[in-house]
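tool_call predict_complex ligand=fructose -6-phosphate
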Amino acid sequence: MCGIIGIASNKSVSTNIINSLKKLEYRGYDSAGLATIYNNEINEKKCSGRVEELEKILFKNPTDGNLGIGHVRWATHGVPNIINAHPHSSDVVSVVHNGIIENSNELKKELESKGLNFKSQTDTEVITILITEALKKMTPLNAVFQTLQKLKGSFALGIIFKSHRDIIIGARRGSPLAVGYSKEENYLGSDSYALKSMTNKISYLDDGDLCILSKDKVEFYDFEQKKINKKVYILSDDKNTAEKGDYKNFMAKEIFEQPTTIKTCVNEYVDNLKKDINIYNFPIEPKKINKIVLVGCGTAYHSCIVAKYWFEEITSLDVEIDIASEFRYRKVKFNINNLYIFVSQSGETADTAAALELCKKNNVKTCSIVNSVESTIARNSDWVLPIHAGPEIGVASTKAFLGQLVVLYILSLKLGKTRNDINQTTYSTSITNLEKLPDSLKECLKTENRIQVMAKEFLDAKGSMFLGRGLSFPIALEGALKLKELSYLHAEGYPAGEMKHGPLALIEEGLPVIVIAPKDKYFEKTISNMQEVIARGGKILFITDHKKELINENIRFGIRVPTIDKLLTPILLTIPIQLLAYHVALLKNCDIDKPRNLAKSVTVE
Ligand code: F6R
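tool_result ok
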């Protein structure tokens, strides 16, 4: 993870570095730092914690300089303190790094045996020392090329030099890196989002690429040190802004804008006059697809599980799902007739990107379902289906999850229809039902007041459990993930039918158990599983779309969502579990948008 920025300009850069770092904080917020070249010296300022702290330091003690680099850290090697914060500088060079240098221990030992000293516990400092040593004999460009050859692992680097105060060198292997162009100013950044307020003209480095930028020129080289040209992309204007408006935090804003983002998404894909879905140019002719393989991480993986149920219900296709960090190391049997679908909000998740890369190496067709269409995953896949959710800033994914679900559902309908697995009537009715989603989501949001009261039930809890069957099982997993990441309360998500195979042992008097039970074919079975929990003292919080009054003295709390097409119900059931995690975290005074130890974009493995 970590975010990096570099600016070469004809005016002072520290304010713009700070502003960009604030945008990059979703990549890490353990520490922050910057370095500029001023008065022929490298000026470094660092702090542990947030960019706000760095800003305070700069306010008291401003740093000038027309060229500089900055960093926000998500700690991998070494605790998140000021010494381990980036940049890592010597007298002659300063480096910011995103990624992991896997052979840093060997390199460190080698350098220490030559009498060279290290200040930090980071893997990055070996890069600083290697370049410092190389600079004694060669130019900055050659020193960087020579150093890169010694590194194993992944990196995006931004490097400045005391002796060459007008250039920044950037290099990429594994971790994303972009270059932005403007008049008399050029930029280096982990992603286009960080650069967007300064420019809409962007190029992306590919693996092995290196760039040298000054205020009026950018040159690119490939890993063989040959000069190359890069395509320039013009970024689109985002209709959805990344401002939180009157909301307390981004997560609240993102939960409450879901009716709107889902409406936009449905409108992008559905032709409501023709009752058809505008998805064309499948990378494999739909009737020839043998199997769908869905891959993602975390919340995006939960979308894949929901989609498996949908594809199996709506199409005749065989479906496999996998967690990206497992998929990339398994001995997968690739098949050119399979369609490999990668789900990712950021489009930068290292494991998902590596799993996609593996598919490309095996010459199979890939599709990505992403929020960020300019991302690595989107650019590397054969076919992209955007979710149109607008920037998601809260670390816990909310509106992107619903967007992923809607696109996956739409894709399953289109495939079902094109393969003649469903008839025209089912297809048209399903599209009509889909169009009702935004209004039903608005209704769901009205459960907030009740959920606020329900959240109090978690204040003294030691843990909690989320149960569901069928399409509600992945929603139970998602509920548990949201609660633990936001409120730091232990939570497990389980298929209700599995309880008696072990987890029932966890149930004790007063343990909050969230039972997600819409009136579907599993309803009675889930109720039986719930009785087993009640018999052992579990405190039941019940979420359903069942119209009947929930009269049961054993149910502590009931939340009802509107009735809709059964296949779409998991989308509605997601709102109460998002609100629940949000309100428990709020009661516990947790940092909602930036939960501890996490980052929005997971660009390390
Ligand atoms: C949880 C959450 C994460 C992400 C995961 C994948 O709320 O947001 O589990 O879903 O890190 O990220 P993307 O979707 O960007 O690949």
